[in-house]
Amino acid sequence: MTTSIKATKANAISTLISGLAILGFQHQLMVMFEINETLPFIIVGGVITFFSLTMFMEIKKQRALALLWIVAQDTLFVLASIVILILQPFDISTTGYVIIGLFLLPILYFIKSQSKGIIEMDVIGHSGTKRLTFSRVVKASKNTVWDVITDIENYHEVASNIDKVEIVSGEGEGLVRSCSHGNDSWTETCTLWEDQNQYSFVVNTNAPDYPYPFKYLKGTWKVNETNTRETEIIMIFDFEFKKSYQKLLLYPMLKWKFSKVAQNLLKKWEKIIVK
Question: What is the percent of the chain where pLDDT is above 90?
Fold first, then answer.
């Protein structure tokens, strides 16, 4: 079980218990907080219980962007509670404020553990390198599929994040191509070429106009013959961020956005192959 799943499950269970406890012990809490109404506990308990149910939904899905949103909500709750503890704007007992402070301790732990889970998500072993893999089975021979996905010079026609591609030098392994998107441009070098099997490009992330936050990025494209009439296209992207905080704050959005680009690319290739 990954850190992300463990953290989400523990957070969901703990939050559900807390929410139900607040709803179930309203009158006892009224005495402890020295207030005469249950409405605040009904509202807080209901919101916390609902929040826990949204986390249970993410235990299986493990969507990075949704997990970051959970962390953000927990963080906002903690910050708001700290402000309340400092200003003490409500007419409640000292015991009530102490309970609010103690309630923050497990939340701080879950913020830390879920953040760690996002950082470790899709990491290859203990390398720190993240990997995203996308695939699609198309009804065509391996040779036909290979011819389409190796149209290197026209890659921009299927990849929505690239406007133009030009071959700078070479062919096969060692080939260098120039790519651009808007005013940004960079070069990519082919580091692997196994005919009818796979090829890889490593991006020059140090290019002055390179727009993405990577210090390393390699893309690999493979074809696997599932049977004589079907072939699987596999795309693998290995990358490392330039800054540590980007693993937490940028990765969820990047994964969501890049997944859309990759799936759209595969869809366009399929249309070309089976037309």
Answer: 90
Helix (H) / strand (E) containing 107: helix 94-120
Residue 57: pLDDT band by 50, 70, 90 thresholds?
Answer: confident
Six-digit token string for 221: 């494209």
How far is CA 93 from each of CA 72, 86, 99, 100, rounded to the nearest angstrom? 29, 14, 10, 11
Reply yes or no on whether the pLDDT at 275 is more than 80.
no
Distance CA 142, CA 157 (A): 21
The tokens of 134 are what? 């996308």
Side chain identity at residue 16, one-letter code? L
Phi-psi region of 34 (alpha: psi -120 to 50; beta: other; left: phi over 0): left
Among 131, 6, 114, CA closest to 66: 114
Bridge partners, 239 (sequence order):
130, 217
Q: CA 41 → CA 12, 24, 63, 111, 275, distances in Å?
A: 19, 9, 31, 23, 61
Specify which residues 193 forms β-bridges with.
199
Helix axes 39-61, 64-87, angle to 10 degrees: 150
Instruction: Please state the rounded mean pLDDT for residues 103-130.
Output: 92
User: Residue 127's pLDDT band (boundaries 50, 70, 90)?
Assistant: confident
pTM of this prediction exceeds 0.70: yes
- Strands in the chain per DSSP E: 130-138, 164-169, 176-181, 184-194, 198-203, 214-227, 230-241
Q: Are 199 and 174 in contact (CB under 8 A)?
A: no
CA distances from 163 to 74, 135, 157, 266 (A): 40, 23, 8, 17
Phi first, then psi, for residue 206 (nearest 5°) are: -90, 0
DSSP type of residue 272: H
The 10 Å Cβ neighbour count of residue 11 is: 28
